[in-house]
Specification:
Elements (H helix, E strand, L loop, with lengths): L8 H17 L4 H35 L13
Length: 77
Amino acid sequence: MPKRNKLDFESALAELETLVSRMEQGEVSLEESLRLYERGVKLSQLCQETLRDAEQKVQILQQKQGKEQINDFPNEE
């Protein structure tokens, strides 16, 4: 069964940021707020899934190179 056209990570994140901004302004009705919230949950799940998939790919690539775990990036201040 083919996947539906999914938003890419950047588009989903941008839409999520827009939804949050609209809701924070407090100028939408309760029904619209609920609709925006529901859409936001779906976008958040899509972003989390995309990040999880990317992390798995990185882990697989590191295992192929003989590295067992992902190291955190050093803090740059």
